[in-house]
Amino acid sequence: MSKDKGFGLAGWLLTIVVIAGLGVGGYWYWKHPGETGPEYKTVPVTRGDLTQLVTATGQLNPRTNVEVGSQVSGIISRLYVDFNSPVTNGQVIAQLDPATYKAIVAGARADLANSKAGLELAQAEEERSKALYLSKIVAQSDYDAAVAAFHQAQAQVEQKQASLDQAQVNLAYTTIYAPVNGVVLSRNVDVGQTVAASLSAPTLYMIANDLSKMQIDALVSEADIGGIETNQTVNFTVDAFPSRMFQGVVFQIRNAPQTNQNVITYDTVIGVENPDLKLRPGMTANVFIITAQRANALKIPNGALRFHPLELADAKKDSNGGTATNGAAAQSGGGDGKTHARAERSTRTVYVLAQGPDGKKDLAKQVQVKTGINDGIYTQLVEGLNENDEVIVSQNITSAQAQAAAGNPFSGGGRRF
Questions:
Q1: Which domain holds residue 222?
Q2: Are residues 318 and 410 in the same domain?
Q3: Are 227 and 54 in contact (CB under 8 A)?
Q4: pTM for this prediction
Q5: How far is CA 11 from CA 5, 21, 62, in A?
């Protein structure tokens, strides 16, 4: 019986020791987890078509917009066209009350007739004075006065004729004609309204020359204007037809800068064909100007150019309490291009998997590549890698690596892309 009791006590002691060992081992493992190699996500280098775009917004406008006004003042007595009315060059589109101008014409005509009568009298006096002067009956001064009166009468007739012509022109201006073929976009007056043309010509109508040919005045920022050239293809959408893509061509880049909230933009004029008249003046166009295209090009995702591997060695602090960083990795800048010279922007750094000491591909290796155009998602690969080569785009970070990165302000691994 005592032997069994002694064996039972030893068993309990052994059980306690085992449990304590497991507890200490678990606590130590929790405080010092086993280091495992980093896990990387890779994607292959592929081939495909790339299109580099410059985006902008602009407004659709007719290529020729004519404001039809009135050169004389008066009351609108007739309107012959309205909104959306088609008009032809020379067509009567409005009429001002001509009564006042007809009266002015009649008065000018009467003044002209009176002047002509005075001219006839002056001419007769000049001829009579000339005959008497040749007969030595009147003095030279009398003859000269008769000649001067005759010339003054001639000038008076010309002046009254000019006044009559001016009155007739003003009378003609009371009839408003369409200056071009087109469509009436807006009508700004009503019958009975008085228009005053004393200071500036009031606008009666706005006429678009041809709505089948329109243009977009797109505002392109100064950062993108360097890639814009005439004859480049343009795709654009409008909110009225969100599922339809329209096309146009750049035909003018205006040099006059426009400043809006300290942003410099330039008016890029895009020619648009509108045969079905779906596009209307004033619509806002979301413009995509094609600046470069590559067919069947090698391409890599932009995430590969931004990726920077986290190295635990980078987080080791030096004796002064600072951190030591990997020089090559720091120079790479994660592919953002800020630390490269502007002349070398096409040379970028990407990372591929390399074989580690254990024989597995678990190390990130730098590769310098030359890149081309960028469509916002993929970048053209000119040289440095081949099709189907795997490039690293992301890395799974362990808790130990995250703690190391948190204590290292110079490590790029703590950044999230």
A1: 53-63+208-295
A2: yes
A3: yes
A4: 0.66
A5: 10, 15, 99
